[in-house]
Amino acid sequence: MPADPVAKWEEFLRSRYWDDILKLADSYPDERSLKIQFSDLEKFDPDFAEELMENPDETIEAARTAILELDLPMDVYLDRAHVRIVELPRNFKTRELRSDHIGKLLAIDGLVRTATEVRPKIVSAAFQCQRCGFTFFKEQTGNKFEDQNLKCMNQACDRGGPFKLLLAQSKFVDAQKIRVQESPEDLRGGQQPQTLDVELEDDLAGRIFPGDRVIVNGVLKSYQRTNPQQGKSTYFDLFHKGVSVEMKDQEFEEIDISAEDEEAIMEMSRDPEIYEKIKDSIAPSIYGYDDVKEALGLQLVSGFEKHLPDGARIRGDIHILLVGDPGIAKSQLLRYMVKLSPRGIYTSGKSSTSAGLTATAVKDELGDGRWTIEAGALVLADKGIAAIDEMDKMNNEDKSALHEAMEQQTISVAKAGVMATLKSRCSLLAAANPKLGRFDKYEPIAPQINLTPALMSRFDLIFVLTDDPDTKRDSAIAEHILKSNYAGELSTQKPWNPEISQEDIDNALTVIEPAIDPEMLRKYVAYARKNVFPTLTEEAKEFFLNYYVGLRTQGQDSNKPVPVTARQLEALIRLGEASARLRLSREVTGVDAQRVVRILEACLRKVGVDPETGFLDADIIASGTTKSTRDRTKSVMDIIKEVSRENQGPAPREDVLNRAEELGIERSKAEEIIDRMRRDGDVFEPRPGMLKLP
């Protein structure tokens, strides 16, 4: 350390940060932090910058003293000002921390898993001697309150107590603890994310929330483990004393795009085959599913969030649901998308609770027994992709927790007096199986999906994937699987078999080689999301308008269902924006509109068609029943009313079924309707074979 670190700081602050100090003095005490770039200090004096890294406590204290000694042109005393060192040369992961790092200034990179409430912490305790009345102060530097072995500071007294703590004269600061977890994208397969507790004080407290991506610059500290039975342990635990916090708002900013990369990206965007190439780069080891892969490519870039003048918000993220028979690679598609997204979280519905997916309030040692907010998968996937496999296996209560997260893209927690709203601005990619394991092709598709209509209607695209035998397609799939496995076998055997050349492996790998390298595709998507915000052209607007109004017109006849709702129109706009983004265009053209209408219609024709009438029916997804079923249900209810009135009591079931047949309703369908009405409580049987409306 230099002979006079305070003088060194004064020289540095006057030469490099004088304007910033004047701004701080002008807005003090509302603003109390002076941010100093580490690189500026390093340019000023490399040795002094190194000293800051090695002995941060003393060096930062010298900086605070230097600020107090500066001769400012205004009458202000910056006694509560803080020096915040930012942009340290290296970011550490929690698993990289070692004993050599204790006491050093380090930057820890990760995401906030848990955050406590902000509470006052005493830093200077005022004690009054009960014998002589003298008041003195004791600095509280650690986490344990120091009130033992005190002596009165009055030399005439010099007694050991008793002392009274004077809260009114003691000095407090706001304090908060957060738990920072390693980012999922930084982990290799099978690694469990490690965590580090961080203490934040004064104006740093209360600004960090679960799910935030942060770089915490601070001093690594340790404390000794204790056990009530065994006493003090030889092992120590680590925690981080926060000096400054840098927010990492945009997850795609984590991807470095060089000038060469940008040139390559612009070249790719001009390729007329760019859509085909992106489609072929998504899970190339899985054969077929062109429409699904095209939609997944659109989901990667998505539309963009819009804030309207009246405060309303329109989401830009695209939600996709894959429902299909077992063994058709749904889970593999999900895992590939999570790997492709810079911020992806994969979870299985069977083992996921609403708290694990959204957020919850928990009571743990981090908050010293208080309630703290813990972020779930959808919060951790903020600005990325959250993949939920086996969604149909989730409990209904857990599924209902997704409603707010999908549409408003926020998660509200109200538990044990803790109320918080967290951000979950992610695209949801979900997979589910039909209720009975496989689809029954003789029954409507929608009722076979074990998801509530309210949840299904929030998906922009629902793909139904059936495993129907087809000789030509089955041969192509089998050939693709065999070639993929052969390529894997050659790669595995190469180290032990000198006869296998790299050329043999390369030739075998061509079948599963993506058209665009995954790393380059990630950069392409990052560039599109950061820089491209397309607007609808008149041509695209007209195409969407004509398509939407044209379909709605079909539903004007009272005997016909409502084909689409405004939700599908919003989905089309999102998909259109994504289509333009994929070729880095500033405009959504008529071609984009046609492309996304084709994809949406392919989904609607599978899941949104009433099999009896052949008409598109939005209510299949929105309410789970078709218009024709609703009409039949109303007819059966009218029959029960009429027969009950004639009999002046409950209606015989047989009479109701006979009259339904006279109206052209099949007996089996009428029985289904009566059974469903009984389950829903719309009709009951006061005695066997007799029906009565409530």
UniProtKB/TrEMBL annotation:
<keyword id="KW-0067">ATP-binding</keyword>
<dbReference type="GO" id="GO:0005524">
    <property type="term" value="F:ATP binding"/>
</dbReference>
<dbReference type="Pfam" id="PF00493">
    <property type="entry name" value="MCM"/>
</dbReference>
<keyword id="KW-0547">Nucleotide-binding</keyword>
<dbReference type="Pfam" id="PF14551">
    <property type="entry name" value="MCM_N"/>
</dbReference>
<dbReference type="InterPro" id="IPR036388">
    <property type="entry name" value="WH-like_DNA-bd_sf"/>
</dbReference>
<keyword id="KW-0378">Hydrolase</keyword>
<keyword id="KW-0347">Helicase</keyword>
<dbReference type="InterPro" id="IPR027925">
    <property type="entry name" value="MCM_N"/>
</dbReference>
<dbReference type="InterPro" id="IPR001208">
    <property type="entry name" value="MCM_dom"/>
</dbReference>
<protein>
    <recommendedName>
        <fullName>DNA helicase</fullName>
        <ecNumber>3.6.4.12</ecNumber>
    </recommendedName>
</protein>
<feature type="domain" description="MCM C-terminal AAA(+) ATPase">
    <location>
        <begin position="274"/>
        <end position="481"/>
    </location>
</feature>
<dbReference type="InterPro" id="IPR033762">
    <property type="entry name" value="MCM_OB"/>
</dbReference>
<dbReference type="InterPro" id="IPR041562">
    <property type="entry name" value="MCM_lid"/>
</dbReference>
<dbReference type="GO" id="GO:0042555">
    <property type="term" value="C:MCM complex"/>
</dbReference>
<dbReference type="GO" id="GO:0003697">
    <property type="term" value="F:single-stranded DNA binding"/>
</dbReference>
<dbReference type="Pfam" id="PF17207">
    <property type="entry name" value="MCM_OB"/>
</dbReference>
<dbReference type="GO" id="GO:0006260">
    <property type="term" value="P:DNA replication"/>
</dbReference>
<dbReference type="InterPro" id="IPR012340">
    <property type="entry name" value="NA-bd_OB-fold"/>
</dbReference>
<dbReference type="Pfam" id="PF21120">
    <property type="entry name" value="WHD_MCM_arc"/>
</dbReference>
<dbReference type="InterPro" id="IPR048907">
    <property type="entry name" value="WHD_MCM_arc"/>
</dbReference>
<dbReference type="InterPro" id="IPR027417">
    <property type="entry name" value="P-loop_NTPase"/>
</dbReference>
<keyword id="KW-0235">DNA replication</keyword>
<dbReference type="GO" id="GO:0017116">
    <property type="term" value="F:single-stranded DNA helicase activity"/>
</dbReference>
<comment type="similarity">
    <text>Belongs to the MCM family.</text>
</comment>
<dbReference type="GO" id="GO:0016787">
    <property type="term" value="F:hydrolase activity"/>
</dbReference>
<dbReference type="Pfam" id="PF17855">
    <property type="entry name" value="MCM_lid"/>
</dbReference>
<keyword id="KW-0238">DNA-binding</keyword>
<dbReference type="InterPro" id="IPR031327">
    <property type="entry name" value="MCM"/>
</dbReference>
